[in-house]
Design a protein that fits this description.
single chain; two-stranded antiparallel sheet; 469 residues; mainly beta; 5 helices
Length: 469
Amino acid sequence: MSCSNVLRPSNLALCCALACAPATAQDALDNLDGLSFDNIGFDDAFFETEQDSTPAWLEPFSFRLSQQVFAQVNSHGTELADGSIYNKPAKTENSRFSLLTRYQNPFAAGWLLQASAQAKVYWPGDYEYRANDRNIDTEFRLNEFFVQRSSDDNSLKLGAQTVVWGENIGNSVLDVINTSEFRDLTIIDIEDARLNQWLMVWDHFDDNRQISSFVNLYPGFNPAPVRGSPFFFEPAFNLTDYRRDKALFEIGSQVRWSITGSDISIMAAYLYENQLHYSAPSSGVGDAESEASDYLLLGFSANRAIGKLLLNLDIAYSHDILVDALWSPILSASDPEVVTVPMKKLGATAGLEYAIDNDQNIILGVNAESLLNKNDRLGKDQTLLADVTTGNVLLRYSNSMRNGDAQLAVTIQSALDAASLLASVSLNYTLTDNLAVMSQIIATRADNDSALAVLDEDLRMGMTLTWSF
């Protein structure tokens, strides 16, 4: 039995910033006619200046400490496609403390060193705690670590980083270069779930053109869902990391032109699918066998600004991706088996961003992908297991209130056929310059034959307290 249908939700992110600097009292006094304090010996006694006591080695760092508690609060039973009832009691899912640190140091002219890392502690009540035999668990991950050399026309970055080609925020068909990990429904932003990879990226800039190329000598793959997480399913066989018995690499280039009110890009890449394909072991017991699928990606993207409206379009053509099919030989007494068939796929994402005013905006994106040569690639005894056409709709409304101290975000994501729906409302409130609290409500609905069937009628509520310095 195949275990390749791993969930691939897509999401979006939005950020804003505000800064101001007041004038000092000394500036006002220096403007008074006929008065001068230049030669008075007690200037510093009256006009002491605040000095930064932060050690020089600590200045490039920033830190964010967070404590999160989330729970599924609706006790209910969900009917699955086989007619069975999956009971879901109300319980805490996330109870964790995290430390995120960022480092940015322009240590010499034209040079930049940038890094970020996070550490987590999973407290009692968290599903990671339960999966760890009811013991407090910890985790450390290096998110980003690269050095950049820049000149007037060129930039070279080497290290762990991301490459984003799509114009649409959150659900672009071109956002496939970096892998991702969606453990929790509390993570609905692709920027939080995207995993960095070790790349060499070169950018060249002309007057109205940018050429960007990357090489990845150690491609990664999406991690399997963590046991106990909302996206976890019980596989028929143990899912292990890919056994690298050969050298893998990825390479790609993008050319981008900027014209008045628009950007246009074309790109091509040789990639490996982020999601491994699993099949039953030949012996019938033990670990599942994993298969890495390489393919060719050709893409096009464009945007167009019209007043407060920004239109986006991403198109991706994928050659020889692997699709699961059920092979049932009519003239054979053997049991049906799942095989993978290479096929072509065409995908598109169309979206818009509309600024209602300085504080409110709306983002809408529609994503659709379709297999092109189903009849040519499938044998007469093979039946496609995946849908020929898939896609989703993503809608986001955000509102910055109280001079930016409160940010309201409403997100709705639905499958194109309405087989599943996720709705989220979050409010982030800044208590002080360093302290903020975020509350969130997430509701999900899914048909019993959907990949998200186990999330039907779920209601999650939670809060995150964050201290940044």
